[in-house]
Amino acid sequence: MxxxxxxxxxxxxxxxxxxxxxxxxxxxxxLYAAIAAALPQAWGxxxxxxxxxxxxxxxxxxxxxxxxCLDLAQGTFRxxxxxxxxxxxxxxxxxxxxxxxxxxxxxxxxxxVRGLAFRPLILLVAVFLGGAPSALIGAALALRLxxxxxxxxxxxxxxxxxxxxxxxxxxxxxxxxxxxxxxRLSPADGALRWAMAAxxxxxxxxxxxxxxxxxxxAALGLGALVLAALETLAWLVLAARYALAPAVTTAxxx
Length: 254
Description:
The protein is an all-alpha fold. About 80% of the residues lie in helices and about 0% in strands. The chain has helices spanning about 5-20, 20-40, 40-75, 75-80, 85-115, 120-145, 150-155, 155-170, 175-185, 190-200, 220-254; strands at about 205, 220. The protein has a two-stranded antiparallel ribbon with strand order 1-2. The protein is globular, with a radius of gyration of 18 Å.
C-alpha cells in the first residue's frame, strides 16, 4: 500500500499534467534553449544563469499560486483540511513537483547550450533555493486572495520584489543604492548566485556586475555561496512561519 505523501505526489503531478503546466514548462524550456543557443557566446553565458534561475522563481511562484487557487475552487483544499494530512505535507508535495519540473527544464536548457560544461549538483541547489521560498510565498498569496484572477493581480508586487536580483545582476553599478539592497534582500537573490556558480568556468561565480555581464563585481567564493544559501533558508523559514501558516489558518476558517 502506497503512503499518503507518495499518492498525493502522484495525484498532484497528474493534475499538473492535466492542467497544462507540464506542457508549459516544456514549451518555455525549448524556447529558452533556442534563444540562448542563438545568442553570441558572451551573451549566452550572461543570460543562461538568469534563464535557469527564472524558472523556479517566477514559474514556481505563479504555478504554486495557480494550483492552490484551483484546489480552492474545486474544494480539494477544504477536503484535505478535514483529513489527518498535515498542511505542510500538501505544500511540500506541491513544491517538490514544481522543483522536479524546474530542474528538468534547467538541465535541458543547460545541456542544449553548454553540453556537459556545467555543474548539475550546484544547479540543483540553485533550483531548490529559488523554488522553495517562491512557491511558499505564491501559495500564501493564493490562500489569501482565493481566486486565480485576484491572485494574478495581487501577485504583481511580490513578483517585482523577486525579480529585483536580475536588475542588480544586469545593471548593478548604475542602480540607486536602495534598489541594490532591496535586490540583495530578495528571497530569490541567493538562488541567482548559485545559478551563476553552476556555469562559472572555474567553479567560482562572479559578483554582480553590469550590462548583462554579471562579471564586474568581486569574486563570489564558497563562503559567499554558503552565506547566500543560509540567507535563502532564513527566508524560507520566515515565509513558512509568518506568511503561509497564517494563510492556512485563515483559509481553514473561511
